[in-house]
Amino acid sequence: MEKSINSRYYLDYNATSPLAKSVKHFLASGDFLFGNPASVHSTGKKSKKYINETSDFLYNLFQIAPENFSIIFHSGATEGINSFFKGIALHHFKHKKKCAFFFSTVDHSSVVNLEEDLKVLGHDIYFFQVDKNGDFSEEQLIKDILKSSEAGVQPVINYTYVNNETGIVWPLEKAKKIKSMTNAIVHVDAVQVVGKIPHWENISLDLDAYTFSGHKFGALKSVGFTFLRNSIALSPWIVGGGQQGGFRSGTENALGIYSLKLALLDMIDNFKAVELQNAKELIENIFINKGIIIGKNSQNRNLNTILVVFNQTYSSDLNTRFDLHGIDVSKGSACSSGIVKENRVLLTMGFSKEESLSAIRFSFSSFLTVEEAQKISLQIQKVLN
Ligand code: PLP
Fold first, then answer.
1. CA 351, 354, 358 angle in degrees (round to 5)?
2. 230-244 residue pLDDT tens
3. Is pTM beyond 0.85 here?
4. pLDDT digits (tens, 9 = 90+) for 319-373
5. 169 near 301, Cβ under 8 Å?
6. What is the number of alpha carbons within 13 Å of residue 382 lying toward its C-beta?
7. Integer CA distances (angstroms), 134 to 209, 291, 297, in order
8. Beta partners for 227?
9. Element at 85 (helix H, strand E)
10. What are the start-end ranges of the E strands in the chain?
11. Neighbouring residues of 371: CB distance < 8 A, sequence distance ≥ 6
12. First-to-last CA distance in the chain?
């Protein structure tokens, strides 16, 4: 329930989520799984058992098989994404081969900011554009990829399944088509998927890797996982004791890893897609005629995100007003060292600088009900009035 968090309406679930009830209960039991999973004594073995239990659970939930995919646990999606792309880049560099990386301009900064390092290793980077609805032309992308493959270069794509800023969904069918036409290696950024689209657990085994982050769905912070097709060769960036098959050295965070399973179980039990959709629509109706609702005309939006451009009002002002009314939202624009920056995603979608400075993102709990949405709507209306 939104209001229960420090008596505030917390509407920033795309940034992070509170802990799932099941995780809180487990922590309250005081069993912190401190043993090193590599140790052979009982305390170590206990941690290992909880990690294995979580792996089995993930294989089962996402219907993948260890024969085809490995699970790599890490400190969250930023690490997972860096390790995947840099790992492929390093592997090809060592074998004197070249990759062409295809990223979208609306990808998360953990993808976009790889550009410099991948170029240093001699690879090419291309950014594909999206339109004002956040969609892109797969025909054009396929053409561009085929052009790069002609030169004997390995194409690698990042495919953002659900966009964190706009909530626009790129169906996996589209990624499968691109893969089948180009034979590119496809990584899916699945960070904003769990509990935010119907049937979020249905993933396509035709694609090569998926990265998830626990803190977006109620698990502990700084823990995530990547499904990696076993046939994809990559050189690990994090080397050391050789844990996790050498893909990611370092003592595993057994407690964090187990919290993934607990939080996902909560999600499975409590997520009601239709209720969330209805609740979101109820809140969205307030914004009609008050601003531009991003992706309103798109066929593919997720269930929990509304990004609104309130023309002529700076998002920093609005954000403060929401804050004073007890509502936590995210301003679409970034602010560093006191300088307000435009929202990069909106700019690349073709919105003006002014528009990109006046965006507010509302992102809801997967468990939002219509009843709660009614209360939230009244509070939002107070701010807007
Ligand atoms: N990718 C997307 C789409 C995200 O929304 C985020 C976080 O906001 C990340 C990657 C990075 O995730 P993490 O916070 O786990 O590093």
1. 95
2. 999 999 999 999 999
3. yes
4. 899 999 999 999 865 555 555 678 899 999 999 999 999 999 999 999 999 999 9
5. yes
6. 12
7. 23, 17, 10
8. 71, 210
9. helix 77-94
10. 9-10, 69-74, 99-104, 124-128, 154-160, 185-189, 209-213, 224-229, 292-293, 305-309, 327-328, 330-331, 335-336, 339-340, 359-363
11. none
12. 25
191 Cβ inside 6 Å of ligand 1: yes
Return d(Cα 295, Cα 357) in angstroms, integer: 17
Test site for ligand 1: of 74, 78, 109, 253, most ligand atoms within 8 A of the Cβ: 78
108 lines ligand 1 (CB under 6 A): yes
- Are 219 and 23 in contact by the 8 Å Cβ rule? The answer is yes
**Among protein residues, the one whose CA lies closest to atom 7 of ligand 1:** 15
Only one residue has tokens 């499968």, namely 176
Give how far Cα 122 sits from Cα of 184, 251, 253, 357, 384, Å. Answer: 18, 32, 34, 36, 51
Tokens (6 digits) for 159: 């495919």
Task: Find the length of the chain.
Answer: 385
